């Protein structure tokens, strides 16, 4: 059990990519902190911290469901303290929680701008900050952030400037922390999909059923995360990685099993 007794703190783990990573690591023996807001199910989104925790335990791991809005530093501190009190420490942090609004500048309301920056940027920064003291004591400690490679080509900013700024900030936090925490042998990397992923956000906000059928399942990111987090933390750090590249490095080139529609056309992700 590669992650046996390791404790993994995952933001936004009640559904989608965060839950898929949680289930993958739970099957390898990990303790999972499900840190997310949802305690009552929204039919459009599905899943709560409690339903995710139940699935995690059924997959073979131990789970602790904690309601946590990462816009609130007190809730972050409370969640981290509960995690440490329950499992004795934190070995891995997954910064997965994120907000999206693909609007041009004139159509981006201040509250939408603030939501993305409060969750994507401020939340990622503060959760990382709160976990660092515990990661310093962790076994092969890693931080993995779900954010894209940095590319200053203007086309990645046009059409959704506020969202791009917020996601690039997440990647910059990852790269900055990789350098800052190198002396503690804490690995920090970012991970992003090459294609769109079949999640509630894609279904509800981006392209509905049509785009879902051109997407891959969250399991491709879960598998990529598994390989990244298995690497030695004193050397495998400071990278912005693409899921396909991670799997290719492991000798995995046939990715058909991840397609929602096997053999179907795939849609490139926003930043690829």
Fold and architecture overview:
The chain is of the alpha/beta class and 272 residues long. The protein has nine helices and seven strands; from the N terminus they run E-H-E-H-E-H-E-H-E-H-E-H-H-H-E-H. It has a seven-stranded parallel β-sheet with strand order 3-2-1-4-5-6-7, with helices on both faces. Helix 8 crosses helix 9. The longest helix has 26 residues, at 110-135. It is globular and about 45 Å long.
Any descriptors?
globular; 13% strand; alpha/beta; single chain; seven-stranded parallel β-sheet; 7 strands; 272 residues
First-to-last CA distance: 34 Å
SSE series: EHEHEHEHEHEHHHEH
Share of β-strand residues? 5-15%
**Average residue pLDDT:** 95
Output the number of helix runs.
9
Largest sheet: 7 strands, parallel
| Fraction of helical residues | 40-55%
Q: Give the class from helix and strand content and strand pairing.
A: alpha/beta
In which order are the strands of the major sheet placed?
A: 3-2-1-4-5-6-7
**Radius of gyration using CA atoms only:** 17 Å
Note the overall shape: globular
Contiguous uncertain segments of 5+ residues: none
**Strand tally, please?**
7
Task: Give the SSE map.
Elements (H helix, E strand, L loop, with lengths): L6 E5 L4 H12 L3 E6 L12 H10 L3 E6 L5 H15 L4 E4 L14 H26 L6 E5 L14 H20 L6 E6 L7 H7 L1 H5 L6 H12 L9 E3 H7 L23
Parallel strand pairs: 1-2, 1-4, 2-3, 4-5, 5-6, 6-7
Helix pairs in contact: 1-2, 1-8, 3-4, 4-5, 8-9
């Amino acid at each position: 059990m590669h992650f046996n007794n390791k404790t993994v703190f995952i933001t936004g783990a009640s559904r989608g990519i965060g839950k898929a990573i949680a289930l993958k690591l739970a099957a390898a023996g990990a303790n999972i902190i499900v840190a997310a807001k949802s305690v009552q199910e929204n039919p459009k989104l599905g899943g709560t911290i409690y339903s995710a925790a139940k699935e995690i335990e059924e997959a073979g791991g131990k789970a602790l469901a904690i309601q946590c809005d990462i816009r609130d530093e007190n809730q972050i501190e409370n969640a981290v303290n509960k995690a440490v009190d329950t499992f004795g420490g934190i070995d891995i942090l997954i910064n997965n929680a994120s907000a999206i609004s693909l609007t041009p500048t004139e159509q981006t309301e201040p509250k939408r701008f603030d939501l993305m920056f409060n969750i994507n940027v401020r939340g990622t920064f503060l959760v990382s900050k709160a976990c660092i003291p515990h990661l310093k004591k962790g076994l092969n400690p890693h931080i993995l952030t779900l954010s894209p490679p940095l590319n200053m080509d203007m086309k990645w900013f046009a059409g959704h400037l506020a969202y791009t700024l917020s996601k690039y900030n997440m990647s910059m936090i990852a790269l900055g922390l990789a350098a800052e925490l190198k002396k503690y042998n804490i690995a920090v990397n970012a991970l992003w999909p090459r294609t769109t992923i079949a999640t509630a956000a894609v279904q509800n906000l981006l392209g509905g059923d049509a785009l879902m059928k051109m997407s891959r399942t969250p399991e491709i990111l879960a598998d990529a995360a598994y390989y990244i987090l298995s690497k030695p933390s004193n050397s495998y750090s400071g990278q912005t990685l693409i899921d396909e590249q991670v799997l290719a490095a492991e000798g995995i080139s046939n990715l058909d099993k991840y397609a929602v529609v096997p053999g179907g056309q795939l849609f490139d992700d926003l930043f690829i």
